[in-house]
Write a structure and sequence with these properties.
The complex is a heterodimer of chains A (367) and B (339). With 367 residues, chain A is mainly α. Chain A folds into two domains: 69 residues, no CATH class; 254 residues, no CATH class. Chain A is 77% helix and 4% strand. In chain A, helix 2 crosses helix 13, helix 4 packs antiparallel against helix 5 and helix 5 packs across helix 6. Chain A is globular and about 95 Å long. Chain B has 339 residues and is of the alpha/beta class. Chain B has two domains: 136 residues, Response regulator (Rossmann fold, 3-Layer(aba) Sandwich), CATH 3.40.50.2300; 162 residues, Response regulator (Rossmann fold, 3-Layer(aba) Sandwich), CATH 3.40.50.2300. Classes of the chains: A mainly alpha (367), B alpha/beta (339).
Chain lengths: 367, 339
């Protein structure tokens, strides 16, 4: 039992450490080739990335990334590739903003209402892909990609003056939320931390609990590992697929909430895009574990924060994109390497134990 | 041994650099470091909008012997990223700090409040703070003239418009162009297409613009006007591949652009937006000690926008274009800024 824990620990910690180290080496080579000093780059990143203001930026930004990666991870655990988190969170935030902008109830009612609308819309949008997969056998990869485009078109259609949007200079956005619907802020001397971070942490804890401590989570993971085996042991696979897509979409609905409730107070043409795709990378990086995802999200936010500063110091800001790409690649490779190593190690050990057992058996027979 | 000395050298170098950068930041705000320029997506060499701003910046830098720092926006940014970019520039002592593109509208006006002694400017958006200059252009009026030229030059009776992003700014281009075409030859067909609904990636996706332009050419359009930043290079490329088809460029005089030199014989004209003049004016005003603030509008009649004549491809219709220009200047023609 103890031995097993050690193996688990090596894969859990060894692989990411190996990956980040390999990524650092590769990135250094790339920066060197571009004729710049990599150590100076890392120094700039660390110095700038650890200032108080950067810390606040990183926490706020990683909240969004964390939720997005969590939504993707729910699918991953089921062996479902939900590429549609991007469309789901945008359309969810859009309709939540439209509803929120049209009402002016007390905050204690309206904030939960806005969040529920967002989760509902996200769930429906992802659910379409789930239903199509179970009833028509259409791959969720295809449908979610297509639903991303459709979400963009639907938002584009409604987000015009005279429909659900209003014109504001060069921007068009939904009516502003009443001030009562703004989420609380954790104030610090250098800036505010978005209160939604509390909900993100809760979502992470809930994710862990449901997956690891409930029957539903067990079913979900078993379907992810083998559909046929799960079906044979009495799990309704089709229902599980739809349910987990719906859940994934509901969590995706939360992605836009920190921005909507704590920053922009409306959904406009300048609402952040592409966070759903970032989530895929972070879910991979965090190996679908909430703690891993949280660390991945923080790392991503750190890289985003320092990218602009690198450009300021004369480095190409694309370096940061290169680092991100290399990290994801390294993580995937490192896990495979460590997994194979652990497997071989285990086989060797079992082989040794068996040989030992045979030897003692022989000795006993001989005697 | 060699490796060790190298690492040691790098260590010393980084320490030294850290020391100098620390020294720099300690006297930030007071020093005269020059101009801070924040580009929109697409960056300096987009052959269009940003490049025009870069021209004004280069000219002013040379003329007043200034230093400067250029930063560029990424895809998928949020307000926080833009605020960070502008704050970094202002904090390091750059003055003026100029945001190129309406995406900087909110962030420039917000960050400016934290740096009351620095002059800020934003292109294509209004000023909302007392140390901010907001520069806007009459894109619809310039586009109207492009519409006149297109209507007169088309042989198929069908022209196309490609917008990068379906936002209010690009709708101004569409509105002017469509009105110009319809006022000149009402039976001309116009194919309007936007690359993206809201994603600003639309300003740096030449491939998408290329396939859109190819679609328009296939369905019979022979003149395509693209208002799409860097993406426009894609549609110009598509147009150049077809004999007898014309492209209308945007923001810069794209006939003269080195990056587009291979296609220049297919660039009939460009709707030039004198972003360079605006950027230069802002920098000059700061150098003169009388910083520009408030809103400045560059209309057709003050040459804020114009129709390029390079290549001489529209010489034959210049009379009609000049007449239309005069009517707009006199107020006889009112160009709508919404489609």
């Amino acid at each position: 039992m103890k031995r097993l824990d050690r193996d688990k620990l090596i894969t859990a910690v060894g692989a990411p450490v190996l990956a980040v180290f390999a990524a650092l080496v590769l990135t250094s080579v790339i920066i060197l080739i571009s004729g710049k000093d990599p150590f100076r780059a890392y120094q700039v990143m660390i110095e700038f990335g650890t200032t108080d203001r950067s810390a606040i930026y990183i926490v706020n930004k990683s909240t969004m990334f964390f939720l997005s990666a969590l939504a993707v991870a729910i699918g991953f655990r089921m062996n479902l590739f939900n590429i549609g988190v991007d469309g789901q969170y945008r359309i969810a935030a859009f309709f939540a903003a439209a509803v929120g902008g049209a009402l002016s109830l007390p905050g204690i009612i309206q904030i939960p209402l806005i969040i529920l609308v967002a989760m509902g819309v996200g769930a429906i949008w992802a659910g379409i892909a789930g239903v199509l997969r179970t009833t028509r056998g259409v791959s969720e990869v295809i449908t979610t990609i297509m639903l991303n485009s459709i979400a963009g078109a639907v938002i584009g259609y409604y987000l015009t003056a005279g429909r659900l949007g209003e014109k504001d200079g060069n921007l068009t956005h939904t009516p502003n939320l009443p001030s009562s619907s703004r989420i609380f802020m954790i104030e610090t001397s250098v800036g505010d931390i978005n209160g939604f971070v509390v909900f993100a942490v809760l979502a992470g804890v809930l994710y862990w609990f449901i997956l690891n401590r409930t029957r539903f989570g067990f079913d979900l993971r078993s379907v992810g590992q083998s559909e046929t085996a799960a079906a044979a042991s009495g799990v309704d696979v089709k229902r599980m697929i739809v349910t987990s897509m719906v859940l994934s979409g509901a969590v995706a609905g939360l992605v836009g909430m920190p921005t909507l409730l704590g920053e922009s107070y409306n959904y406009g043409t300048d609402f952040p895009l592409g966070v759903g795709f970032t989530g895929i990378a972070i879910a991979l990086l965090g190996r679908n574990h909430p703690v891993g995802i949280a660390l991945g999200a923080l790392l991503w936010a750190f890289l985003e924060r320092t990218g602009t500063q690198l450009e300021f110091e004369g480095y190409d800001q694309k370096i940061v994109e290169v680092i991100k790409g290399i990290i994801v690649l390294c993580v995937v490779i490192a896990y495979e390497v460590v997994r194979r190593w652990a497997l071989r190690d285990q086989q060797r050990r079992v082989g040794e134990e068996l040989a030992q057992a045979r030897k003692t058996e022989k000795a006993e027979v001989g005697a | 041994m060699r490796r060790v000395t190298k690492i040691a050298a790098a260590g010393v170098a980084t320490a030294a650099l850290a020391f100098t950068s620390a020294a720099c930041s300690s006297d930030s705000g007071s020093s005269d470091k020059g101009v801070g320029l924040a580009f929109d997506v697409g960056g300096r060499s987009d052959a269009s909008f940003n490049e025009s701003a870069a021209r004004g910046y280069d000219k002013a830098k040379k003329e007043f012997d200034l230093g400067g720092k250029e930063l560029t926006a990424r895809d998928g940014e949020t307000e926080a990223d833009r605020e960070q970019r502008l704050t970094s520039l202002a904090e390091a002592g750059y003055n003026p700090v100029i945001g190129v593109g309406f995406a900087y509208g909110k962030s420039v006006n917000k960050v400016a409040k934290d740096f009351p002694d620095t002059t800020f400017a934003v292109i294509d958006e209004a000023s909302q703070a007392k140390n901010v200059a907001g520069v806007t252009f009459a894109e619809h009026e310039g586009s109207y003239l492009a519409g006149v030229a297109a209507a007169l030059k088309t042989k198929t009776g069908k022209v196309g418009f490609i917008g990068g992003v379906h936002n209010n700014l690009i709708k101004k281009f569409e509105a002017g162009f469509v009105q110009g075409v319809k006022d000149t030859k009402p039976d001309t067909e116009i194919d309007v297409k936007y690359l993206y609904e809201t994603d600003i990636k639309g300003f740096q996706d030449p491939l998408r613009a290329k396939s859109s332009a190819e679609g328009m050419l296939d369905s019979g359009s022979d003149i395509i006007y693209s208002a799409a930043g860097l993406s426009g290079t894609g549609s110009i490329e598509a147009v150049a591949a077809q004999d007898g088809a014309w492209a209308i460029g945007v923001d810069s005089d794209q006939f003269r652009d080195k990056a587009l030199a291979d296609y220049k014989d297919s660039i009939m004209t460009s709707v030039v937006k004198n972003v360079d003049v605006a950027v230069y004016d802002v920098i000059k005003s700061v150098e003169d000690g009388k910083p520009l603030t408030g809103d400045t509008a560059f209309a057709l009649k003050d040459d804020g926008v114009s129709l390029a004549t390079s290549g001489g491809f529209i010489e034959d219709v210049q009379g009609e274009i000049d007449a239309a220009k005069q009517k707009i200047a006199d107020g006889e023609i009112k160009v709508s800024d919404t489609p």
